[in-house]
Specification:
The protein is of the alpha+beta class. It has nine helices and 15 strands. It has an eight-stranded antiparallel β-sheet, covered by helices on one side. Strands 7-8-15 form a three-stranded antiparallel β-sheet, with no helix packed on it.
Length: 345
């Protein structure tokens, strides 16, 4: 077979490109991978991300978090969620669409115990229920007119409200989803070993620097808010799972001698009187874990256990008050033992 001179030049050129690309690919594979630890602040909370790679990706991580913040931060003047709340025309991005659809899904599955429209009720009671003496049945009734997840939908990519006063706040699910978003970014770089923690919500894949699953501590309850050094209730070992915790057993209120978490029941508009002080949920993705942890604190143990049975791959760890002696006790799902690295001493 004969080749023209131009054909030979072309073949040689293509071979050189192929050879160069192959060498560069092999070179990348041979580059030393180390564990990086990037930290910072986003959504008025901190983040801590550890991952094994050939270089730091902090700039890319923060750029992605900034885009996420522009979409779902209700306190940001020009964010997408703010424009939705202000009834302005706005193009919904994938961040907003994904978290909204998941929120509606979980609201339906929990019978409305998870509801991203409850902010007006939460604001009425104030942080830590500091406005408790000023809240009246009339106020709750008036707010309930435009609270309820069924009052807002997406139709053909646009928000539709039954009442223009409907407001949404995705803080009970967005931090978990942000962990998933950064996980997607890391996996685009073919990173297999990483742990992402944003505001206490965690996504873990692969192994840590020691070659074992990522070790996560669950705090032991302590009524002294001034204690800085926290004891551990248990230590968890996470490989290829996500974890979220809702409720705060260090910040409860007491009614008729019994402790309750600072959580609003979306159905009644009043503080929840349930037996769960803290719910830790393990799931395949952090958005799911975050939302169900929030719902479970509002639902109470009996309803939560029934719902959890219907969700594949979901596990729970509840901290509640033992009525016999007011001590703290725990209850966890069957199979949760697989995540327990050791019992805290």
């Amino acid at each position: 077979m004969k080749y023209s001179k131009s054909s030979l030049y072309l073949l040689l050129f293509l071979f050189s490109i192929s050879f160069f690309t192959s060498c560069r690919s092999d070179s990348n594979k041979n580059e030393k991978q180390v564990y990086y630890h990037d930290q910072g602040e986003i959504f008025t909370t901190g983040y801590s991300i550890k991952y094994q790679h050939t270089k730091s990706l902090k700039n890319e991580i923060e750029a992605e978090l900034d885009k996420f913040d522009h979409s779902l931060n209700p306190f940001k003047e020009n964010s997408i969620i703010t424009k939705v709340n202000n009834n302005e025309l706005v193009e919904l991005d994938s961040f907003f669409m994904n978290v909204f659809k998941k929120s509606m899904e979980i609201s339906a599955k929990t019978g409305g115990y998870f509801d991203i429209t409850t902010s007006p009720l939460i604001n009425a009671w104030g942080f830590g229920f500091q406005n408790m003496d000023n809240v009246t049945p009339e106020i709750i009734d008036s707010l309930h007119e435009f609270v309820g997840y069924e009052k807002i939908t997406i139709d053909n990519g646009e928000i539709v409200k039954t009442d223009p006063r409907v407001q949404i706040n995705t803080s009970a699910i967005a931090k978990g989803y942000s962990c998933d978003v950064i996980a997607d970014l890391l996996e685009q770089h073919e990173i297999e070993n990483y742990m992402i923690e944003i505001g206490g919500e965690i996504t873990a894949r692969g192994v840590n620097e020691k070659g074992v699953c990522w070790i996560i501590g669950v705090d032991k309850p302590n009524e002294d808010m001034l204690i800085v050094q926290h004891d551990l209730q248990t230590v968890l070992s996470l490989c290829n799972k996500s974890l979220a915790t809702s409720g705060n057993y260090r910040n409860f209120y007491v009614k008729d001698g019994k402790k309750y978490a600072h959580t609003i029941d979306p159905h009644t508009g009043y503080p929840s009187n349930t037996d769960i002080l803290s719910a830790t949920v393990v799931a395949d993705d952090c958005m799911t874990a975050d939302a169900y942890a929030t719902a479970f604190v509002s639902m109470g143990m009996e309803k939560s256990i029934e719902i959890a049975k219907e969700i594949p791959g979901l596990h729970y760890y509840f901290i509640y008050e033992n009525e016999s002696d007011s001590s703290f006790a725990v209850k966890y799902s069957e199979g949760f033992e697989q995540f327990m690295a050791e019992k805290a001493k």
